[in-house]
Design a protein that fits this description.
The protein is α/β, with parallel strands linked by helices and 225 residues long. It is 31% helix and 24% strand.
Length: 225
């Protein structure tokens, strides 16, 4: 059988977004609405997920499932990527911090919607691969570095929005400090068996309000002592 080409992947990508829409409708009681932002759906239709998984897994890239990418990590399920992006609601004039680059798929989706994206990855091999992939796609609005994402990236703070793609029991204080008043942070919170996708809003006075959504399971946020 001949290998898939870009036309095949484009069809599968459209089908993936249709499945995300169905999943959102079925999860409406958990997420509070039946449809995700069309801007988010357009970004999901555009970004080539098959480039952000190991080559042998490319034919499966548009199934609504997480896939292994090495180092006991996965690329998140497309519905979860779309939902986290929708909850974050990045705008075209906003600066976004991502913690947990992986191979850069979520990063690329964020860059379709925000003005600038800074992303931190603790696994050096992932950071290098993501940097190369995103450079190949020609997006100069993304900057990636290796390091402990729980400490944020103070040099470029404050951020309008922060997205964390790994779970912790509590939100790292440094990330809340680097979030602008009026900003929003989205991440999975809780112990391994009780994680919930969580959105934290910071008001103009610096007070935070927490909103919990559906149960999820993410790898733990790694830190450097």
């Amino acid at each position: 059988m001949k290998p898939m080409n870009e036309s095949h992947f484009a069809v599968l990508r459209r089908h993936m977004v249709e499945m995300i829409a169905i999943h959102a409708d079925l999860a409406r009681d958990d997420i509070g609405k039946a449809m995700l932002d069309e801007r988010v759906m357009a970004a999901m239709r555009k970004v080539p997920r098959h480039l952000f998984v190991p080559v042998p897994l490319a034919p499966y890239a548009y199934q609504d499932t997480p896939l292994p990418i090495g180092f006991d990590k996965t690329i998140s399920q497309p519905f979860i990527v779309a939902l986290m992006t929708d909850l974050l609601s990045p705008q075209s004039d906003e600066r976004v911090l991502e913690v947990g680059t992986g191979l850069g798929y979520q990063t690329a989706v964020l860059a379709e919607l925000a003005d600038r994206v800074w992303s931190i990855e603790i696994v050096e091999e992932f950071a290098s691969a993501a940097r190369s992939l995103l450079r190949h796609l020609g997006d100069a609005r993304i900057q990636i570095r290796e390091g402990d994402g729980s400490r944020g990236w103070s040099k470029h703070s404050p951020f309008d929005k922060i997205l964390v793609t790994a779970a912790a029991d509590t939100t790292p204080a440094a990330l809340l400090d680097q979030l602008k008043p009026g900003g929003r942070l989205v991440m999975p919170l809780g112990p391994e068996e009780m994680q919930r996708l969580t959105m934290i809003e910071k008001d103009a006075t610096g007070q935070t309000r927490v909103h919990e959504f559906l149960p999820v399971r993410f790898s733990r946020l790694e830190t450097i002592m």
